[in-house]
Amino acid sequence: MLVITCPYCQEAREEEEFSYAGEAYIARPAVPEEVDDATWGDYVFHRKNPRGWHWEQWQHVAGCRKVFAVKRHTVSYEIAGSWTLADGKALYLEEQA
Amino acid sequence: MPDLKATQVELYQGLLAGSTTGYPSLDFDLKGLLGKFGRFMPPGFYYKTFMEPVKAWPIYEKYIRKAAGYGRAPTEADPESYDHLHHHIDVLVVGGGAAGLWAATLAGRAGLKTLLVDEQAEMGGWLLTERRSRIDGLSGMDWVNQRLAELASLPNVTVLPRTTAFALHDLNLVQAVELLQDHLPLTERNAALPRQRLHKIRAHQVILASGAIERPLVFGYNDVPGVMTAAAGHSYLNRYGVAVGREVLVQTQNDAAYEAALDLALSGVKVTLADARQGGAAAWRQQALKNAGAELLLGHGIAKVLGDKSVSGAQLVKLDGRSNQVVGSGPRLSVDTVLSSGGLTSTVHLFCHNGGRPVWNQQQLSFVCPDEGRENIACVGAITGRWELSDALSQTHAAVAALLLGHGRGSTGKAPAVASEEVAAPRAIFRLPDGKPEGHGAKAFVDYQNDVAAADIHTAVRENYRSIEHVKRYTALGFGTDQGKLSNINGFAIAAEALGKPIAEVGTTTYRPSYTPVTFGALAGPHVGETFDPRRYTAMQASHDARKAEYEVVGQWMRPWYFPKPGEDLHAAVNRECLATRNSVGVMDASTLGKIDVKGPDAREFLNRIYSNAWSKLDPGKCRYGLMLDENGMVMDDGVTACLADDHFHMTTTTGGAARVYSWLERWHQTEWPELKVRFTTTTDHWATVAVVGPNSRKVLQKLCTDIDFDKDAFKFMDGRSGTVAGLPARVFRISFSGELAYEINVDANYGRYMWEEVMKAGAEFDITPYGTETMHVLRAEKGFIIVGQDTDGSMSPNDLAMSWAVGMKKPFSFLGKRSLLRSHTAGEGRKQLVGLLPLDPKVVLAEGAQILSNTDDTVPAAMQGHVTSSYHSAFLGRSIAMAVLKDGSKREGDTVFVWAHGKSVPAQVVSSVFVDKEGVRQHA
Ligand SMILES: [Zn+2]
């Protein structure tokens, strides 16, 4: 069981209050009709599933119901931090660059 | 309570106890018999003998389980209550022996929020048994009581006895179970209070002081009653005043068992101590024992125990000083009890539950926790292999002092003073030799609970099981409620010898929660029955009860299923309800439909993106049926949404899908389109909804409401109006899930029952008939209306459902799922599509879920064409009908297919799924 900090509530709470909402920052093709089946299939089905640091979304379902970004290690379960989706995206893009 | 360990149960007045082992009875123990002919039942016996035929396995299993002595699980519901308590603390100390008490004292003095748990009823650990040590000049128990008094005086410290920490999870989440009433006489138990409490402890720092458990030595016939560990004999004497025998043989390979022998001898028991070491214990111990009148036999081991149902003696042999060999015969002793000590095994379980590995300590002959512990987990005392009290306390002091310094808490003073004593090293011997090859001498048990003998481990290795994990599974070593606490190291050592490897290389099996068995009741706590799976009732519940409704549970809601009149069964009631509704008027409680209020300047654009159909031109006062697709293009929910104002919509969802759709909307809004100005409020519970259905429904509404014009051209099908119904502000939607003229009246949920009764009164002259979900299903199936989740399964596109009319491919924004509809497979041939089926025999109602075949050839594997999704008898049509998904179904109208179920194939004709009023005249009436 994780302990997760909601960046909106600014509180560290038990995982039971949250619900996992999948990998973060998956880009939806801007004009879906212009991409081929393979590209669209990647977007719909393929996930990174890394062994290591993972950017993911959590929703504070038993709290403020906001969706936010968490950077979590999938082996050690260490959480590097949690951010609003907008704040996290800047960091995420920086890391990807 | 099945499968408790007798020595760990606190006695109370009126306790009823019975054995679970020894089927059919203790005196005729089937397994005891097999044990005598051990060679006939080698390890892997079950696998080898009972594997074929597979069909007979349940029969074998029944008898094997019985013979193995597993307890019977109770079949009644647990009448006891349990609760859960969450802790968020600085320090958790596991174990209330000397090390744990000192660790808790230091943490408590430093002002940290500290919790100390111990599985026993009394704190003190080994000091409860061992009475000679002095700490800071006090006797062991005086020092324990001083500690407990100090801890009780500290408001930041909690001490919980009878509390077993049984699991350690990531981020220092520890679960512990506290036995609150199990030790009380039945007459003193309070049924209003919980029997056990599960503590969920989140601690910044865990200090493991869980100590060590003595393991027995392995020797011939060591399962005869009267054989026990030295520590057990010692505790019986010093804690409970029981001498376990009059003539006792103590067999050891270490110094500690001398303490038990000495106390027994001083209590007047005739004691003989056999030590596997040639030199024996430290000189002072040998002297003390001799002074107490005990006999000492150095370099001796037990070859076998004598006696059948109880110990009558023991045959000893002389042991070689270096190798584990017999060098000569020894005396045959007449004793009534045999105690043995093979040294201590550190209780490393919790440390290993989430990935920690123990290390082999060759001096102490145990797998132990490393001194440095792990991040935020400290290990103190015997768990690190420190058997001597002086070592244990000084290591505890140093470890906790370092930890407190890390927390910025200052000096901790001095460690408790304990005189250190000279100790002779233990001998690395686990299986005492009897001079015979393994398997040829007396049977020597390693795991008492699973009847695993030393010979079985050799057999497993001989059969080429190399990994200790495989040896464990092949022999059942370390299974069961004991989880190898007594047997594991002996088993590993015997496997190591057979494999010709050092023990450290053989390693340990994996330690998993739980440390001890925990009753499901404690794990579930208060989350049982309706607190686990709540039941939801609509505001009309009392009205339904009064009309004797039968209920079915739909996504936690208790919905009326049908309303039987006296003597009616389900079918009779449903036939009557259907006909009454189609011919006059019916009424249904539709309050459970999910309702979401969608509001904001971009609400319309949001609906355009989330639904497959178009919403741009829906005027206020109009309703529209919408299909919701996932990004894979498959139908995930449906419902009617009404436009209340240009920026305000009343969305409905399926009863079971309400919560899922609500978070679906939230997530898309927050993650993908935060720029859209729109808000969602779940209003399912806010509105009570009465559906008035049938040709006379208009007349009923007109009696109840005068400020809405119900004329067929003024208030059309798929229109919505606000007005006053039965004196209440109401939203009325002219929508239909039956194909009939129908209205749904929505009022403040607090008035739900009042509205229901007003409708019943107004409809009385038309014999208004309440109906439930079953009639609703029949009525909608007669019209071919789908139920998401029944006629769809997450792999049905709008096309497959012949609902392309609900897909706005020309909408500017590429709505969810649109792109997927264009994929080659989704747009291609051979997909299953929704059709209607009419069994050729109109009296036959097809089985839902039945497979559809193209012909009567049922040779396996048959080419499956699809399956029946909905099937009913239609009273209105006087025959059976069904909906199904069928490969390329849209092109197969008129075909005859064969529906296979219950060993029979039933012919049916493929037809349109709209069985009643194809032109839609009735709903537009
Ligand atoms: Zn929050």
UniProtKB/TrEMBL annotation, chain A:
Pfam families reported for this sequence: SoxD (PF04267)
Molecular function per GO: sarcosine oxidase activity
Enzyme kind, highest EC tier: oxidoreductase
Keyword field: Oxidoreductase
GO terms under biological process: tetrahydrofolate metabolic process
InterPro entries with a match to the protein in the record: SoxD, SoxD_sf
EC number of the protein: 1.5.3.1
Protein name stated in the entry: Sarcosine oxidase delta subunit
Native source species: Aquitalea magnusonii
Lineage: Bacteria, Pseudomonadati, Pseudomonadota, Betaproteobacteria, Neisseriales
